[in-house]
Amino acid sequence: MITLRKLVIAAAAAALSLAFGGAYAQSKQVIKIGWTSADAPQDPYATGARLFKQALERQSKGRIEVQLFPNRQLGDEKPMLEGLRFGTLDAAVITNAVVAQIEPAFQVNDLPFLYSNEAQAHKVLDGKVGQMLAKKLESKGIIALGFMEGGFRHMINNVRPVTRPEDVKGVKYRVMQNPVYIDMFASLGGSAVPMAWGETFTAVQQGTIDGLEIPIAVIDSSKYDEVTKYLSLTKHTYSMIALMMSKKTFDKLPRELQTAVREAGKTALGGQRVAAGANAKALVATLEKKGMKVNEVTDVTPFRNSVKPMYEKFRPSIGAATLNEVLAEVK
Residue 23: its pLDDT value, please? Predict the structure, then answer.
């Protein structure tokens, strides 16, 4: 026969169990991360987000769940960037040129024909310059967790292959809403058409624009081989994509989880760069098999000469110290 004493003990145990269960549920944090491109295996944005999810859930021992939102589910890049600043969005992977809209020092990474190869870019972004840029971004309310690899950007269009600056003239290229990209195509004689990413595919398909400039992996993941004919490997800009978290979200985390976030960012950065580099090389052959006519630009000197005045034009907005440091690194 159950005594009153046993009933009281059982009730107390149940209440204690519920209390601990509730505390555990409340302690689990959900981090939502967004990006605008496809959720494809070889997409550099998707690769970075997924590696961050894996690393952070492991580093936090299950105390953080990372939810993935690709394909502009959380908005285009500029609205997502504003969401990070105001704390309405937790995390995102965003293109350097868009980050530069709130912190002009990031324009240095978009200067055309600045980096000769990926290793140069990594050295700059992982060193003193990267630390300077991260500090500036934090003052805007955003924590930089890693400067990942979108890969070199190339020109695709439906008019002609690009082998020299003259081939850019008269061709309408979609560019990001960023003054460096607009000036770059103006310097080369092209017609720059600033446009949000979500509008671009249809614009090419309908002939509103002739083409765009874009990393290899995004050509494939977003199926631009279906609507453009020529792929010219111009390597005009190294596309850094930033893995970032809202400072408001970050500051709410206990210290041990803040450490887990930063460590997960480092882990994801290393893995993403390796994957992005390997994918880009393989995808050139894939795009050629799909029907794109591919050509490599072997001499970039004429292009560099055409855009050279841009470096001084953007020196004031980038900051002389930042630009000088980068030029010293890549010399």
Answer: 42
The reported pLDDT for the residue numbered 146 is 97
Give the pLDDT confidence score for residue 173 in this predicted structure. 97
Secondary structure of residue 31 in the 3-state scheme: strand
Please, which pLDDT band fits residue 47 given cuts at 50, 70 and 90?
very high
Asked whether 130 and 266 are in contact (CB, 8 A), the reply is: no
- State how beta strands 172-175 and 91-95 pair: unpaired
CA nearest neighbour of 99 among 49, 152, 138: 138
Return the closest-CA partner of residue 155 out of 204, 121, 107, 114. Answer: 204
**CA-wise closest residue to 306 among 113, 97, 157, 105:** 113
Domains belonging to the chain, first-starting first, are 25-330 (3.40.190.170)
319: left (phi > 0), else alpha (psi -120 to 50), else beta? left
CB 193 within 8 A of CB 174: yes
Averaged pLDDT for residues 282-311: 95
CA 280 – CA 218 distance, rounded (Å): 9
What's the whole-model pTM score?
0.83
Structure tokens at 286: 């894939």
| Cα–Cα distance, 280 to 42 (Å, whole number) | 9
* 161 in Cβ contact with 292 (< 8 Å): no
Query: For 242-279, how does the pLDDT look when each residue is reduced to its tens digit (9 = 90+)?
Result: 999 999 999 999 999 999 999 999 999 999 999 998 88
Nearest in space to 156 (alpha carbons), one of 90, 86, 204: 204
Of 56, 285, 2, 323, the residue nearest 180 (C-alpha): 323
Distance between CA 61 and CA 42 in Å, rounded? 27
